[in-house]
Amino acid sequence: FIKNYLISNLSQHKLSDLALISIEHSIADSLSYNETINLFA
Q1: Origin, by domain of life (predicted)?
Q2: Which of 12, 16, 31, 37 holds its CA 20 to 30 A away from the CA of 22?
């Protein structure tokens, strides 16, 4: 039971992390690098 729980829990974390990476990637693609540089310069 514990082994199955741990495997399931790790799988859920991996799926959440992959979803977050995908979302962050699409956000990063939509950013304008020049505007970002000017904002912090």
Answers
A1: Eukaryota
A2: 37
